Amino acid sequence: MVDNTWGRRVVYQIYPRSFKDSNGDGIGDLNGIAEKLDYLKDLGIDAIWLSPVYQSPMRDFGYDISDYYDIDPIFGNLSDFDSLIKKAHGKDIKVLMDFVPNHTSLEHPWFKESRSSKNNPKRDWYIWKSPKKNGAAPNNWLSQFGGSAWELDKKTHEYYLHTFDVSQPDLNWRNPQVVEEILNVMRYWMKRGVDGFRVDVAYYLFKDPFFRDEPHNPSYSDHHMQYDSLLHIYTSALPETLNMLKTLNNVVNEFDDRFMVCEIYTFLHEIINLYKIVNHQSFAPFNFSFISLPWNVTEQKKFIDEFDELVGHDYFPTYVLGNHDQSRIAAKLGEGAARIAALLQLTLRGIPFIYYGEELGMQDVEIPEEKAKDPMAVNMKGFDFGRDPQRTPMQWDSSKFGGFSDVEPWLPLEKEFKERNVASEKKDKKSFLNLYKSIINLRKTRKSLDEGKLIPLDFKNPNVLGFVRKEKEEKTLILANFSEENQIVDLPEDNWKTILSTRLDVENREEKDQILLRPSEGIILFS
Ligand code: GLC
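# alpha-D-glucopyranose complex -> structure
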């Protein structure tokens, strides 16, 4: 059974560059985040996850670390960080750090040493291979950011591996010194008060020791990323990687009440397998089913029912609608469906991860190719792979730069920020923000929504998804109409009262045997 606090927490992802600029350079920072803790508390947030704030040349905006033990001056310094943690803890908000163990920046001193000569003691900290006889790369492995995953280093005439940008060389996890050092990095931050980690690309740590070519993906078509043209059987999800996640989690468990969530895009059964391997309540993989499966009742229901059952009550399910790598949910689904998505995310059993601005219904912002900042957009021009659209500044108010900064922000604000912002949504009773606040509040005050088990319902209607959350005698019923038409639903036997509609225009309405769901409407009912 649940015996740690994480299963109840609502987690909020902050992309620090874009949350709040406190020093007038157009880029968000730690003191800016500290200024907004009251907003987060008021929203009902229990934990924040900060995308990387370590020292970095920012080629991949912090996912390319050049010093694991320090904060990048763009965001502040160690004392700002300590003070943010202290303030957050003072409000009972936990702090998760992003943790990037697969690769460092090219500018990390370890890599500088490693590339300096073939017999440097740090040579083996990264993955180096000699060229093939014809000078070509050692094998066909691809980078997620386009092209080969190998880069020839002129100095020693060997290739180094980079699963991401050429500026992000992969560490060699088969070297025990690397493992030891990285585990110490985790301890260092936990000693500083950090409550745990979001582990970046946790599925990739180990690569095939024989460096075999990866097979072609038969279902690939060329509007997908080139990376998807191969099946990554030799670079992802190796058994060594899964066991290493258990080791990382053991380090997390050296400290009280910490947590670790892993970025892993995979299938249901692999997710479940991971829960079992790591086998601790301080661990969960992200579940991206809302993002990766088609948005229809059949697919989503099938996943949710199976997932909830297989995860069981010993572990915590997670639900994600978006992050800094994914198109925003309101842009993908439209406003009505995004409200339903939020309703499901916040009422299903498990830990919701909210991406900053989702609570406002923030949209993607089109960034012209010549203004692109994200290396995925810069490296793969002509495709729509850039992630800048979902990383634009948080919209606090209707002032010139949206209350984010006093100067032009690093990425442009959404065009509608004057209407869609925290200040105006606070005043609008039917806003997205008030929807999030209301549901989070219900979640905290209603036992069945907090700890209750999930009872799937089948309405034999392909447009309606519903389930009950039940704790002892208390029941909460959730209904969601995925269609653009009215749907009439027979209610399970009980005395039901509608407490909330995703349109925020119904309250405390006694229901009879049937209920009408309006287009794209979701409802919470109490019995
Ligand atoms: C993860 C991050 C992404 C980053 C990549 C390389 O997928 O979420 O933003 O570019 O890892 O670190």
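# post-check
The chain has 15 helices and 21 strands.
The longest strand covers residues 464-471.
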